[in-house]
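#struct-queue
[09:14] JT: dropping the first one here, sequence first, then the structure tokens:
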Amino acid sequence: MKIRKISMNRLPKLGSEPWVDQTRRPYCHGEYAYVPVRVGFSFDLDLPERKPYTGPGYQQLGDTLLLHGAVPTKSQLQNLIAWKHPACILHLNHHDGVMRLPDVSILYGIPHDVTFREIGIIYTINPAKIMFSQGNRVEKQRIRSLIRPGETVADMFAGIGYFTLSAAIAGARVHAMEINPVSCAYLRKNTETNGVADVITIDCGDCTTHLDGPYDRILMGHFDALDFFTTALSHAESGTFLHVHGIGNRTKDIEDILQGADFRYSLSEHRVKKYANHTWHCVWDVELK
């Protein structure tokens, strides 16, 4: 592949240059970009074609890669480093407890804060300390589309702002509650970075002691949300929407609680992502009548 080596600051200005091969992506490393050149134009280097990456899958958060599943072999790890040039690679073993704290092994580099953008929202976290689920991207967009400007929203399990930030950007005033003080610190930073700190109230602690409804909408983005459903209903009223996350088929459990609370309601189920064989992470939308 024929390329020209240029400084990174020139890369954004190359869109209209006739010599640029628009069918190929530039390769960036350090202060330089290696830009593919069309046939018939001068070039600096003739590089061998890059082989496609065939190693283990990864989740990229800034300059850090997070691996799931089997631990990579030494050869696989070296290939991944050569392919992505990360500053750090972590292997996620599992998540612990109600705070969903990540248990990670460090495979390369030193864990540190990373900043990245997802669906127009900027997040800063340390992936070795805090969970970040990219599998919830579509659900964040869906919630954002449902919010009506001026709504009062409770986020009972706010984390670093997964749904809090989406709701605030959509025009809601959000009461965000988070039990993990480390997550709370990142949540505060993320609200400021995204310019919505003035419409978000943050309480660090158990959501059951901080709820202060009624609210127009209650977000319950935790796998154990159903354990808190009765408490959430005590801060709801006719017209309130609740979004209850869970694993597997919990429709009847939700209906039993609603009927016991003597609410009229409408209920619908949305699948977020596959959790295990024949098991889905789902969200149940409840509208109280």
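[09:21] JT: and here's the second one, same format:
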Amino acid sequence: MNKSSVKNLRAPSGYIPDPGLMAAANVAIKLEMPLLLTGEPGTGKTLFAKYIASVEKMETIHKFVSHTNSAYTDLFYTYDAIGHFRESQKTDIPSAEVEKRFVHFNALGKAIQENKRSVVLIDEIDKAPRDFPNDLLEAIEELSFKVPELNNKTFAFSAEKNPLIIITSNSEKDLPSAFLRRVVFYHIPFPDEELLIKIVNKRVFDDDSNMNASTVSKIAKHFFEIRDIEGLYKKPATAEFLAWATYLKTENFDFSKIEDKNDPILKASYSILGKSHSDLKKIVNL
């Protein structure tokens, strides 16, 4: 797969948001409220952050990925206590040097330091501890933080427009009601066949004059047949569909053989869509 094809998969320029998503984003921007996005993995929640940054002409995107042990202070910074301790045994370290070497600023901390309009993406909040979402909202509302390790040095945001905070969730667990009351919410549905065809045309086949509407429709139809296989552990989503179509394109696959189970290129491509041994077997035997 050539580099330009891979780059196109990750670029926000070809992203096609549905109208409801754009409406929710505009509400969040106008009210300066966080935007919470849900939807099955691969429907474009993370890529939307890049897209809206491009549309709103915000140059910087700061990303924080939530983990099971995340604390809300991690949004601002992390402190290398062990490294600082080791070095302090050898020599005195000035505060400015401590900040430079042992304090690592993260997504929200960087946005506050920059003091300009940007996008802060907080990914997979449902993986974080139960109290993290409510603590997160307090942090967002304050947009300031202190670093005790730097003699309580304070960082505060003072620009005219706050950062746009986009939070994603794969709905692996319920989020607190108090948190949900204070965000703008949108669930990204899986695209229907018509929208999926528009997306793949825009992101994969835009420069291919050999791809007519009938052929692209057959590709989308075959993909939906795969998604509809009963008992799949994980249904392939939009991201897998685009990667699958891109792989076939770069292999110069004859798309008239899209249902030819014995074609070696097509059989190899199913490894993009099946994410377990049983799923892959079901897809190959469709």
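[09:30] RK: nice, looked through the second one.
[09:31] RK: The chain has two domains: 19-187, 193-284.
[09:31] JT: good to know. The chain has a mean pLDDT of 90.
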